[in-house]
Amino acid sequence: MAKKLFVKTYGCQMNVYDSARMADVLAPLGYAMTDGPEDADMVILNTCHIREKAAEKTFSELGRWRAHKQDKGGDMIIAVAGCVAQAEGEEILRRAPFVDIVLGPQTYHRLPEMVAKATRAADLNGKGGAVLDTEFPLEPKFDFLPEARADGAAAFLSVQEGCDKFCTFCVVPYTRGAEYSRPQAAIMDEARKLVEQGVVEITLLGQNVNAWHGDGGRGFGALIRELAGIDGLARIRYTTSHPRDMDDDLIAVHGEVEKLMPFLHLPVQSGSDRILDAMNRKHDRATYLRLVERLKAARPDLALSSDFIVGFPGESDADFADTMALVREVGFVNTYSFKYSSRPGTPAAMMPDQVEEAVKDSRLAELQTLLWDQTRAFNQTCVGRTMAVLLDRPGRRPGQLVGRSPYMQAVHVDDADGLLGRVAEVRVTAVHPNSLAAELVDVERKRA
Ligand code: SAH
Ligand code: SF4
Ligand code: F3S
Q: Which family does the entry's similarity section mention (predicted)?
């Protein structure tokens, strides 16, 4: 009989990819996905450690799962995966002793063994103890994962992992480990298999995705050109990139490869050189602005997104004003902005001049107002325009489908029956707070 698996995911797209792969790893053991933890035989919490709030969610969620486990008379395997597991594995087992398995982001190919051990421990009335595996094994997990199963027309494909940049605020180099690039052949193989399963859009993932490098010094731009040659693959995206790794070839690829979507998430964090230096970002304001200029020269309709941190230790009103000025100068859409969150063990946590919470709050509000205005203004310019949308999800209304524009906007399209999983030409008719409304152009031709 099939066993039921429930996976809950916090954090970035890498975690979303990892969650899907953990389900792939467990499928041969008879685990099929279910929608909630209540009736599951196994539950996995895939956690994020990036900010304090994200990490706290782990323990509150686990508290709720403990109750489900008790309701089932203890007959439920609880696993904690991801970046909190990597950073605080022992602490999790101490604070939540009902957890059976703790595993890091680099060991989930070993889940079958861990499940076997946890089951044996349960047979011993828990006396076998919990399983903890947060190593950084020498063998990369990708070599041991089963084939990826596609879930819809858009897919993530992890090509690079880890980070050697050590920004002073960030836990990722500690939770994900050193930078690693998957071999090109394995990436091409996974991409082709996804396309065979009906995938038309692939988003290449990595904590520093554009730091990817292949044999013979091949760079990330070359990988994108190669992927663009796959018939049936209509769209390519990538995230998250680091300004430092944006080389000449990759910039050129934005102008030359039609399948590469005109949207780029390029985190800047701050507009102040003093703060960028304290953050150890390895780029300054001028370098970032020059990069944006070159990218837009290569691809004039490129829309840019970014990440921002306000209230980094020592950030003055003048530093924050530099961030606001940079935002005005560049113009962003669909951004993410955060209050600096002190992370244990990172250099910035030890820096003097930590900024008061109230100051962070007001700076964040001011920045988000500006960013939101920019997103809204951009969305408004899209009304009346025709664009290609990948319709990959059913909408709320009958006959309605939802998809992504080339610029990552969510687009709702009515009377779109039969077009699920297809790229359709649509004309944008209205802007809603978080999405666009559009109608099909030339319906008959598109359905043919
Ligand atoms: N690799 C990516 C980002 C990974 S984390 C990059 O280099 O940009 C995603 C975002 O979380 C970061 O871009 C940053 O804006 C934010 N972030 C990371 N650590 C943080 C912290 N300690 N406090 C607040 N925001 C943080
Ligand atoms: Fe974190 Fe910086 Fe690495 Fe991005 S580049 S993952 S922000 S350390
Ligand atoms: Fe969070 Fe780990 Fe991603 S800390 S943002 S889940 S790499």
A: Belongs to the methylthiotransferase family. MiaB subfamily.
